[in-house]
Design goal:
Elements lengths: L2 H8 L4 E3 L6 H10 L7 E3 L3 H15 L4 E5 L3 H12 L9 E5 L10 H16 L3 E5 L5 H16 L4 E5 L20 H12 L4 E3 L3 H13 L6 E3 L7 H11 L5 E6 H6 L2 H9 L4 E7 L2 E2 L5 E2 L7 H7 L4 E5 L2 H14 L3 E6 L15 H21 L2
Parallel strand pairs: 1-2, 1-3, 3-4, 4-6, 5-6, 7-8, 7-9, 9-10, 10-14, 13-14
Antiparallel strand pairs: 11-12
C-alpha cells in the first residue's frame, strides 16, 4: 500500500522511532513531510526511548502517538511497554509500526532469523494486538483494522501494524548527505593497516561488511575480526569483555554513531573500567546509513567531550586521513584507553557484499585466534 495512505488511515500527527530498511518508505515520507520536528517527528536513540517519548506526547496532549522500529527493537521496547504503557499500569495507548525482518519463509541475514520467528509471538505475549500488512493487503483491510484498533486504544491498550518486506510503496525521494569527505570503507582500510594482527570487534551494518571485504581484498584471514551482525549498540561492551580478559592483547573496536547513541551508557562503563588495551573508534556520519540514511543526533553532539566525561583518558576527533593515521599510531603506542571519533561521509559502494562465513564460523575462528594470541603472549613467541 502507499505509505501516505497508511499514515492517513492511522491519523496521528506524531511519530517517533528508530529507522528501519523495511520501513524506509515511511521514514522517507516522515522526513519529507516533517523533517526532524519535535512537535511531529523525533528519531530516538533506541526503541525503548522512543516508546517513552511517545508516552510523554500522550501525557501532554491526550492524543495517540505512533512508534516505528525494526522488529529487532522489540527487545528494547518491552520494558517501557510492559511497565509504563501497559493498561495495568498507566494505560497509555500507542500504535506501533514494526518492520518484519526475518519473516519465516523468506531469506534474511542470520541476525534476523530468530527475531523474525518470534516477532508476532512477542507482541501477543505483551498483549499488543497486531495486524500484518503485506504487498497484497488492501487499503480497506487496513482501514477496517484501524477502526477496531481505535476501540482497543481507547481502553488504554496498545496495537501494532507489522510490515512485510516491500509492503509500503511510493516513498518520496529524500537525499541524505553531510559535509564530511572520508568514506567509511577507506577509514576501515586505514584501521586494518594500523591494527596489524590485533583483534577487532566491529559494529552492526555496513562497517562489518566493509571490514570483511577489506580483509578479502588484502588476502587476509577473517579470524582477526568479530563481526557484530546483530545487537546494535553493544560492540563496545563486547570489546570491553574481551579486553579485560585478554589484558596482554590490544583490542580494537570499530563503532558507529547510531550504535553509540543506542546504548550510550556503555561508554560510561568502558570509561570507568579504563582497559588500557582498548582502542575505541567511532565512525560518525550522523546517519543511520545501513537502513537508509536517516539522521542521528550525533552530528550535533560532542562525542569527544562525552568520552572524556565518561572517564576515557584520551579522546580526539579527526576529519582527514593524515590525522587519522597519526591518531591511530598514537593510540597504539600509549597503552591507555583511547577514543577516536572519525568524521565520515554518507555512502557506500553499490556492490558492497556481505560476509560469506556464518556467524557461528566467525565466532569460532575469532575465539581460536584469541587462544593463539594468549599462547604466544605466555610463551613470548
Amino acid at each position: 500500500m502507499k505509505v501516505e495512505k497508511l499514515v492517513e488511515i492511522i491519523g496521528s500527527d506524531f511519530y517517533t522511532g528508530v529507522p528501519d530498511s523495511q520501513l524506509k518508505a515511511l521514514c522517507d515520507y516522515l522526513m519529507k513531510k516533517y523533517g526532524i520536528d519535535p512537535r511531529h517527528h523525533i528519531i530516538a536513540a533506541n526503541e525503548g526511548s522512543c516508546t517513552a517519548i511517545a508516552a510523554g506526547y500522550h501525557l501532554a496532549t491526550g492524543n495517540i502517538p505512533v512508534v516505528y522500529m525494526q522488529n529487532s527493537g522489540e527487545g528494547n521496547m518491552i520494558n517501557p511497554a510492559a511497565s509504563l504503557l501497559n493498561h495495568k499500569v498507566y494505560a497509555i495507548p500507542v500504535v506501533f509500526i514494526i518492520g518484519w525482518r526475518g519473516e519465516p519463509g523468506l531469506y534474511d541475514e542470520p541476525q534476523h532469523i530468530y527475531q523474525g520467528e518470534v516477532t508476532l509471538k512477542l507482541l501477543e505475549d505483551m498483549g499488543i494486538e497486531s495486524f500484518v500488512i503485506g504487498k497484497e493487503t488492501a487499503d480497506e483491510e487496513v482501514a477496517a483494522k484501524m477502526a477496531e484498533f481505535k476501540d482497543i486504544l481507547a481502553s488504554g491498550k496498545d496495537t501494532a501494524f507489522v510490515i512485510r518486506r516491500g509492503a509500503l510503496t511510493d516513498a518520496p525521494k529524500v537525499e541524505y548527505r553531510n559535509d564530511n569527505h572520508m568514506m567509511r570503507e577507506e577509514i576501515i582500510r586505514h584501521i586494518v593497516k594500523a591494527s596489524g594482527e590485533d583483534p577487532i570487534v566491529s559494529t552492526t551494518g555496513k562497517a562489518s561488511r566493509e571490514l570483511f571485504e577489506t580483509r578479502t581484498a588484502n588476502g587476509q584471514s577473517h579470524k582477526y575480526d568479530f563481526l557484530t551482525v546483530g545487537s546494535m549498540g553493544h560492540s563496545s561492551s563486547i570489546a570491553l569483555g574481551v579486553a579485560v580478559n585478554k589484558p596482554q592483547q590490544r583490542i580494537w573496536c570499530i563503532d558507529g554513531d547510531g550504535a553509540v547513541l543506542m546504548h550510550m551508557g556503555a561508554m560510561a562503563v568502558v570509561g570507568a573500567n579504563k582497559p588500557d588495551n582498548l582502542i575505541h573508534i567511532v565512525i560518525n556520519n550522523g546517519a543511520h546509513e545501513t537502513v537508509g540514511g536517516m539522521p542521528t543526533v550525533a552530528g550535533e553532539i560532542d562525542l569527544v567531550a562525552i568520552a572524556k566525561a565518561c572517564g576515557y583518558p584520551h579522546a580526539v576527533w579527526v576529519d582527514n586521513l593524515d590525522d587519522l593515521d597519526k591518531e591511530l599510531e598514537a593510540a597504539k603506542n600509549r597503552n591507555e584507553l583511547s577514543l577516536i571519533e572519525v568524521k565520515c561521509s554518507i555512502g557506500a559502494r553499490e556492490d558492497l557484499g556481505r560476509p560469506t562465513t556464518t556467524a557461528l564460523e566467525n565466532k569460532q575462528n575469532f575465539m581460536r585466534y584469541l587462544i593463539t594470541l594468549t599462547n604466544k603472549n605466555e610463551t613470548g613467541a
